[in-house]
Design brief:
single chain, mainly beta, 7-stranded mixed sheet, 11 strands, 0% helix
C-alpha cells in the first residue's frame, strides 16, 4: 500500500511564502503524474498544479507566476513552493499521485490527508 503525507502548511501573512512537501511511502515502484489540489470551505476541490513523469508542469491561472511544483523521484516526493500568498489561497491543500505500485501492473490513485494553509494578517 501507498501513503501520501503532506507537510509544511501553516499560517502566513499576505505576501508571505510557504513550501509544501508531499512524501510518498510504501510499496512504490515509481511516481507517475503528481499534483496539488486545494479545497476551501464550501467550495469544490480545485486543481492547483500538476507535474508529469517527464517533468512537464501546468498551473491554474490563479497561481501562475507565484507557485512552483517540483518533484524528487529519488525521495518519492513532490513539492509546492508558494510565494506572494493571498488570502484567497487559504484552503486545505492535498497531494495527489498516480503511483506505480511494486508488483502491481496498474497505477493506483492516491491522496494525502491534506495540510491547512491560512493566509491572513
Amino acid at each position: 500500500q501507498v501513503h501520501l503525507v503532506e507537510s509544511g502548511g501553516g499560517l502566513v501573512q499576505p505576501g508571505g511564502s510557504l513550501r509544501l512537501s508531499c512524501a510518498a511511502s510504501g510499496s512504490i515502484f515509481r511516481l507517475s503524474a503528481m499534483a496539488w489540489y486545494r479545497q476551501a470551505p464550501g467550495k469544490r476541490r480545485e486543481l492547483v498544479a500538476t507535474i508529469t513523469s517527464e517533468d512537464n508542469t501546468n498551473y491554474a491561472d490563479s497561481v501562475k507566476g507565484r507557485f512552483t511544483i517540483s518533484r524528487d523521484n529519488a525521495k518519492n516526493a513532490v513539492y509546492l513552493q508558494m510565494n506572494s500568498l493571498k488570502p484567497e489561497d487559504t484552503a486545505v491543500y492535498y497531494c495527489y499521485g498516480a503511483v506505480v505500485v511494486a508488483h502491481n501492473p496498474a497505477m493506483g490513485d492516491y491522496w494525502g490527508q491534506g495540510t491547512q494553509v491560512t493566509v491572513s494578517s
